[in-house]
Amino acid sequence: MLQEIMSEKELAELFRRKSFSPRFPEASDRAAWAEGNHPYRRKRFPLYLRNAELWAERPYAEIYPPLKGEDYFAFVRNGNRSVFESYYFGRRTHLTLFCMAEAVEYRKRYLPLVIEGVWQLMNELVWYLPAHGHYREGDPMPRFDQPRTDLFCAETGSTLACVVQLLGREIGEESKELLTWVKELCVERVIAPVEDDTVPQWWLGGINNWSPWCASNVAMTAFTFLRDQPERLARMIWKLIGVCERFYDRYAPDGGCDEGPGYFMVAGLRLMMFLDLLNACTDNAYARIYSEPKFRNIGDYIAKVHLTGPWFASMADSIAKFDRIDAGLLNRFAELSGSSRLKAFVLNAAYGFDSSEKAEVSDGTGGSGEFPHLILQNELSQLFWYPRDLTRTQPPSERLTVLPDLQFFRFRQNPGDDRDGTVLCMKGGHNGENHNHNDVGQFEVFRNGSPVAIDCGSTDYTRFTFSDRRYENRFLNSSGHNVPAFNGVLQEAGEEYGARILSDTDEVMIDISGAYPASAGITSCVRRAALSPDGTALIEDSATGSGEISVLIPLYCCEKPVPVAEGIRIGGMVLHPTGLEAGEIEEIPLSDRRMRISWGGTLWCIPLKGSFRDRGCWKLEFVPAE
Predict the structure, then answer these.
(1) CA 592 – CA 317 distance, rounded (Å)
(2) Between vectors from CA 270 to CA 265 and to CA 271, what angle results, nearest 5°?
(3) Phi-psi region of 366 (alpha: psi -120 to 50; beta: other; left: phi over 0)
(4) Is 417's pLDDT higher than 80?
(5) Would the CA dihedral through 273, 274, 277, 282 be positive or negative?
(6) Residues 6+ apart with CB under 8 A from 37
(7) DSSP designation for 125
(8) Which end of the chain, N or C, is more open, meaning fewer C-beta atoms within 10 Å of its C-beta?
(9) Are the C-beta atoms of 201 and 146 separated by less than 8 Å?
């Protein structure tokens, strides 16, 4: 489809005669950078300046911390990724911060720190992360003969491309040769490895988020630094079009992202960014894809998996709580696809999901006023694609939202107000999904904007997260989710282990027995989810098997469960279990950074136990406490 629109030869001919413009206004375009009266700029611009002033007073070693060999080697030696990555991303965040502050103020106060940041990035030995390198057995140094254009090598190229587009004129007044070095290093490290078919770059297959994430950043790098080589630029863009076409073709018609909401931001959203850049650089040749229902559905996914406030269904390796939403980027998606659903979601997100009349536009920092992680292309996109009209619109009034291909289901008691009433969601799917957790049948319950029964999400990544030891992690297998274990047997990994939808109308019924190996001893297990008008959420299981079968469901929550006369009080609801007995509640202290972002310092697990012979049924009713 995409590769049929223009041939490589036609692209080269277009690029030979085309005069390329910067993707976003240059810092010298003071009319475009004027603060004006837009609420987002009024809040965001002072934050750039305040944070830049604070960091500018720090020693260089804190602004651009050194990247040590021992920290890089730690990945192979002990599996640690976090130390090196914290310094690596910190350097890029500070470069972005000083770029934005200089563009806002435009007094050359921060230009030396921008140039220093560029210098520091160019002096890094490699731009890809330790977790993504190629290694010889037992050697912690990545192979010299197999350079990687991984996610963050590509993102570094895009960042430097945006630096040049934004402040290239001002940097050139200090040193034109520095711009030459930036160009040549970006071509050598980002573009050349993708051109070389002998160097393995597995993301070229269009398999998961890596494909559009890398492709969009490589494209930004190429459109910036290969403008004087139209044939080479055309070859690269043609190759990347093929990558994104394969990724798009693998997407199901419902637009569901099996990697979870957090990864949508670097999967479906990055596909949009690639197509938007491609279309802008080819005189709107690719605009026809914007009218496709699947393209619209890909964008609408993020609205459909939103639960309440900052909370999203934490499927796969996604975190549950978003500290910020890229409203500008999502607004661009809504404009291109023409989606009223996504537009309503964007406007809700712009106000921090506060539905009150006194709500103000969010500053994009989650209320902290600080920037823990910045990406220059995203910041520019946010700024120039943010909705101009901030008048909120009503989202679709759906009691039950269904993604049939992904097998995701969301009930909402009060469709018009996401913070009021009960929200219940459940997923089916299969256990061969990207970032899989062996969690077929997982459900979540929220009440009046607060979590009751949760999906814990993922822990910090280590060397073992994406290895054959992945499922040794409690929270990445069935025991870290509220799905049954039968006779102590958990669900199995693999695409063949999945659910069947039996009903998805007023209530949802899925048979999750296919997610278990034969050793579990069951022949069927139908999980039913329903939400009553009074806000009572129901999960009911009916199972069949042969002989005596034990059942254990670990129910996770972030509010401390309190036994009461009528059941177990969890936040604003009372759990009434029938057919299962609650065991001793387990308190789980959290030290993991990713989990603490969503849940704070503690989780609790309620073990719900029972048994049956040949046929059994049990149910969990979550009843509003007020």
Answers:
(1) 14
(2) 125
(3) left
(4) no
(5) negative
(6) none
(7) S
(8) C
(9) no
Q: Is 73 exposed, middle or buried (0-12, 13-18, 19+ CB in 10 A)?
A: middle
The answer to whether the beta carbons of residues 583 and 559 sit under 8 Å apart is no
Domain at 400-624, CATH from 3.60.20.10, 2.70.98.90, 1.20.1250.20, 2.70.98.70 = 2.70.98.70
What is the Cα–Cα distance from 402 to 423, expressed in whole angstroms?
14
Q: DSSP letters of 78-117? A: H---HHHHHHHHHHHHHHHHHHHHHHHH-SSSSHHHHHHH
Instruction: Report d(CA 343, CA 587) in Å as an integer.
Output: 41
Mean pLDDT of 97-124: 98
Q: Which part of the chain is CATH 2.70.98.70?
A: 400-624
Place of tokens 């969690």: 439
CA distance 574 to 590: 25
Residue carrying the six token digits 């299969």: 430
Average predicted confidence (pLDDT) for the chain: 95
Query: What would the two tokens of residue 481 be?
Result: 């989710």
* Contact in structure between 140 and 73 (CB atoms under 8 Å): yes
Helix, strand, coil percentages, rounded to 5, for the chain: 40, 20, 40
Residues 129 and 142: their CA atoms lie apart, in Å, by: 10
- pLDDT given for residue 368 in this prediction: 85
- Give the span between the Cα atoms of 35 and 13, in whole angstroms: 39
| Assessment of whether the complete model's pTM goes beyond 0.90 | yes
